[in-house]
Amino acid sequence: MRQSRGQRMVLATCLGSLLLVVFYFQSSSNPAAEDRILKSSWHGKSGRSPLQALYHGDQFEQSSLQATHQRRRDLLKKVCNRYTRKRRLLTPDDLRHLVVDDVHGLLYCYVPKVACTNWKRVMMVLTGQGKYQDPLEIPANEAHVASNLHTLSEYSIPEINYRLRNYLKFIFVREPLERLVSAYRNKFTRSYNTAFHKRYGTKIIRRHRQDPSDEALEHGHDVRFEEFVYYLLDPQTQREEPFNEHWERVHSLCHPCIIHYDVVGKYETLAKDSNYILRLVGADAGVKFPSSSKTTRTNDDMTAKFFQNISPFYQRRLFNLYKMDYLLFNYSIPTYLRTR
Fold first, then answer.
1. Please, which residues have CB within 8 angstroms of residue 324's CB and are 6 or more apart in sequence?
2. 230: which of 5, 66, 224, 266 lies 20 to 30 Å off by Cα?
3. Which among 95, 113, 91 is positioned nearest to 245, based on CA atoms?
4. Is the pLDDT assigned to residue 13 strictly greater than 70?
5. How far apart are CA 244 and CA 250, in angstroms?
6. In the predicted model, is pLDDT for residue 37 greater than 70?
7. What pLDDT does residue 14 have?
8. What span, in angstroms and rounded, lies between the C-alpha atoms of 150 and 95?
9. Single pTM value for the model
10. What per-residue confidence (pLDDT) applies to 286?
């Protein structure tokens, strides 16, 4: 049966709402309308937005840190141009990791296991209208309550495009396999993470352990690292569902070849890069990025130990799984990795 013109228009509208074409790299055709959409003032103490402070701030032009971040942006663009043949459309679901600060004009793409708890705490202070003063006073579990922060996926398409064009967009990344081991340690070796044990551990043990005990099958509490690796590389895993955010690739969480990030911070230079962003924001002197006092943090030496019992065949396949993150963010192949 042939559809009427009105029905076709309704169908097209519905389909269009499922796909978000991001045109933030183009100039606005109606800035006044977008200003009305924003309905907020996010200029810092200097009267400039963080984005203006980054690209037009005299105090940053000659700094070595500014040069470092320019090199990171240039590399990101170069790798994206080389490996991305076709720009795909973003969906609202692609934007759920982008935390919005309408007070200061910030978009932060959070990556689990890259200091995202502390950065969410800082974002709560920045957006809290005085409710919070010290990031460390905010309990870690409260930082992960979805209602405490807004994500870009909650906004209309005109509001999304405005923010992508005019807000400072930043991301923090980490050596990919170190981040992976950190996720494994946190989710599978801590007794309190029973939800992950039941949700993922039982499945991993059922598929990748020979002769598992009834207790392991029921609780999923003793997943071995090599079993976790087999699970990640099993084609059935991603056919069933996307990776969990704690071990998903950064380029799949934050889409750096579609969304043009202004600052790429690194876990290895966390304090320096975080303070740089807070300076761009013009944050109050009392807003400090929390310093870490952890002595059990996953580092390169610890990561190397986890790979001692992984065969070169699986090491190579695992590296290839995370290869794009290595290329985009300028990480070298770890010396402990045996890929031949």
1. 83, 249, 251
2. 266
3. 113
4. no
5. 12
6. no
7. 44
8. 11
9. 0.87
10. 80
Phi-psi region of 209 (alpha: psi -120 to 50; beta: other; left: phi over 0): beta
CB count, 10 Å around CB of 114?
Answer: 21
Instruction: Please report, as a single letter, which amino acid is at residue 107.
Output: L
Q: Across-strand partners of 263?
A: 170
- Output the pLDDT for position 109: 98
Tokens representing residue 143 in the block: 């930082």
Q: For the chain, give the number of residues.
A: 340
Segment 216-222 shows an average pLDDT of 96
- CA dihedral (27, 126, 175, 186) in degrees, to 10, reads -140
3-state secondary structure 35-90: HHHHCCCCCCCCCCCHHHHHHHCHHHHCCHHHHHHHHHHHHHHHHHHHHCCCCCCE
The rounded distance, in Å, linking the Cα atoms of 248 and 173 is 12
Both structure tokens of 56: 């037009």
Per-residue pLDDT tens over the stretch 101-112: 999 999 999 999
Q: Are 272 and 103 in contact (CB under 8 A)?
A: no
- Residue ranges in the chain assigned as alpha helix (H): 5-18, 31-38, 50-56, 58-61, 64-83, 116-127, 140-143, 157-166, 176-188, 194-196, 202-208, 214-219, 225-233, 235-240, 250-254, 270-281, 300-306, 312-321, 323-328
pLDDT band at 22 (very low <50, low <70, confident <90, very high): very low
Contact 53, 223 (CB under 8 A): no
Report the mean per-residue pLDDT for the chain: 86
Structure tokens at 68: 């470092």
Which own/partner contact pairs does 290-294 have at CB distance under 8 Å and 24+ positions apart?
Answer: 290/118, 290/121, 290/122, 290/135, 290/136, 292/115, 292/118
- Rounded to 5°, the CA angle 40-43-47 comes to 140
The pLDDT assigned to 16 comes to 42
Q: What angle, rounded to 10 degrees, do the helices at 176-188 and 225-233 form?
A: 120
Largest distance between two CA atoms of the chain:
68
Helix, strand, or coil (residue 258): coil
How far apart (Å, rounded) are the C-alpha atoms in residues 248 and 322? 9
